[in-house]
Specification:
220 residues, alpha/beta, six-stranded parallel beta sheet, two-stranded antiparallel sheet, binds tricarbonodiimidic diamide, 10 strands, 34% helix, 9 helices
């Protein structure tokens, strides 16, 4: 076991049963012209965490620990996109519409690719998920269970939407979850801060949070 300084208390990381999960670091959320932008967000905040996520990926790859990437992605025929999701709000473009990086949030389109700096390596898991949470309508729990993975270290975007939803889903399925603070971001800084506090409150009701440096120190 490796002890990681964390909140609300130290995280006992088990290298034999841990995986890194990088949530939705796809161009749709990180670059102008994608889903994040058409929802009215300034996407530049999210670009800033790419070096921290890259450092976290290097740490796991260097230790030969498993890595999982997710993408929020819908089928081209939109059969996995509920109208309640597609018709929500008044965005300039909706899911499935043609945007600056191809069809918005559709699997296989340029905007749906993970940013090149964080591209998955051969052998790393890549899960397309139609929901905000990574277990909804995916076979991920079976995949992780088959590999004996019981702990998940989280990074990615956005903190209070897909990251927190995925952490909550994972927590209910019995995984121990650790969020790396510099490797996650929100379009709204106050939401990021609040989401982290919600996760670690009440003795870690959803999980733990740690600084990247604390994880690097623990592995050194
Ligand atoms: N809009 C927003 O903050 N997030 C999403 O729509 N998806 C993810 O968080 N990936």
């Amino acid at each position: 076991m490796i002890t990681v300084s964390a909140r609300p208390y130290a995280f006992s990381l088990d290298p034999a049963h841990v995986a890194l999960v990088v949530i939705d670091m796809q161009r749709d959320f990180i670059e102008p012209g994608g889903f994040g932008a058409v929802l009215g967000n300034d996407v530049s905040r999210l670009t800033a965490i790419i070096p921290s996520v890259a450092a976290l990926l290097s740490l796991f790859r260097g230790q030969k620990l498993p890595v999982l990437h997710t993408r929020e992605a819908h089928r081209p025929d939109l059969s996995d996109c509920p109208p309640a999701k597609r018709l929500r709000g008044t965005p300039g473009l909706r899911i499935g519409d043609e945007g600056a990086m191809g069809r918005i949030l559709i699997a296989g389109e340029p905007g749906n690719q993970i940013v090149p700096e964080l591209a998955p390596l051969p052998g790393e898991m890549v899960i397309d998920k139609p929901g905000k949470g990574m277990f909804w309508a995916t076979d991920l729990h079976e995949t992780l269970s088959a590999k004996g993975i019981t702990q998940l270290v989280f990074a990615g975007v956005t903190t209070e939407v897909c990251v927190q939803t995925s952490m909550r889903e994972a927590n209910d399925r019995g995984y121990e979850c650790l969020l790396i603070e510099e490797a996650t971001e929100s379009y709204f800084p106050e939401f990021k801060a609040s989401a982290i506090e919600m996760i670690v409150a009440q003795g870690g009701i959803v999980g733990w949070a740690a600084r990247l440096q604390d994880l690097e120190t623990a592995f050194a």
